[in-house]
Amino acid sequence: MKISQLFDVTGRRTLITGAASGIGRGIAEAMAANGARLTLIDQDGEALAAVAELLRQDGATVRTTVADVTDSVALRTAIDAMIAAEGGIDVVFANAGVSAGPGFLTGDGQRNPSASLENLSFDTFERAVAVNLGGTLRTIQLVTPALKRNPGGRIIVTTTVALHKTETMVSTLYVISKAAQGQLVRQAALELAAHNIQVNGIAPGPVITNIGGGRLQDPAARAPFERFIPMHRLATPQDLQGAALFLASPASSYVTGIQITVDGGGSLGTAD
C-alpha cells in the first residue's frame, strides 16, 4: 500500500477535546491538513474560534463547541450535535487535560516543600482527577454508542510517560491523575475490540504548551528537563502529529490497547 493510502484520513469525522491550544491544536492542524472533518471542543471559546478560523482559511471543514469535559450535559450536547451534523464519528482524540503544579524537587535538585506529599492540595487533586481521568472516561462513554454504530472507529487518548515512570519535577497529583488513563485505554481497548473500535494512547514527555500557565515556554523552566532528556530538547505539539496520524489512519489497523511514547528518550534515563 502506498503511503498516501496508508496514512489517509481524508473525510474522517474527527472529534478533538482540548483543541484550542497545545497538543490538541497540533493534532487538529495535522488532521485538517490531511483532509479530516473536524469538530473541536474546548472551554476557551475565544482561543477555539481563533484556531478554527485559521484552519478554515487553509480550507479545512471545522465545527466548534465550547464545553468543559467535566460537564456531562455540555459534553453530551456537543457530541450529539456533531453526530447530527456529520452523521457519525470516526476518530476521537480525548486530549483535554490540566496540570497540577510542580514536583517535589526543583530544577536544581532541591526539595520543594510546598509540593511534598503532606502538603498536596486535595482541591488541586480533585480538579486534576476530574479533568484528566474523569474527562477522558466521560468522553469515551459518550462517543462509544456512535462508534458501535460505525465499526472501525478510533479513540486516541493523550496520556503521559508518567504511566511508565515516576517523576520528580512534575506534581505527584498530575502523575496519579493521569496514570489511571493507561489502564482505561487498555480496558476500553479490550472491551471494544469486538466492535472493531481501536483504543490507543499517545504518551508524551514534557511538551511546550500553555498547560500549567505556559511554564515550559520559559527557557529557564525548560532547562532542567532538557538536561535530563537524552535528546536535550522538549517536544512541541508538532512532534506528536506523526503518532496522531498513525493511530487515526489505516496504518494502525491492527493496533489497539497500546501507548506510543513520544519523549525524546526521557523514559530511558539520562545519557550525556
From TrEMBL:
Say if the entry is tagged with keyword tRNA processing. no
- Provenance organism: Hydrogenophaga electricum
User: Would you identify the family this protein belongs to, as annotated?
Assistant: Belongs to the short-chain dehydrogenases/reductases (SDR) family.
Indicate yes or no for the key word Oxidoreductase.
Answer: yes
Going by the entry's taxonomy, the superkingdom of the source organism is recorded as Bacteria
Sorted UniProt keywords: NADP, Oxidoreductase
What this protein is called in its record is: Short-chain dehydrogenase
Return the InterPro entries for the record: NAD(P)-bd_dom_sf, SDR_fam, Sec_Metab_Biosynth_SDR
- What Pfam family is a match, any one? adh_short_C2
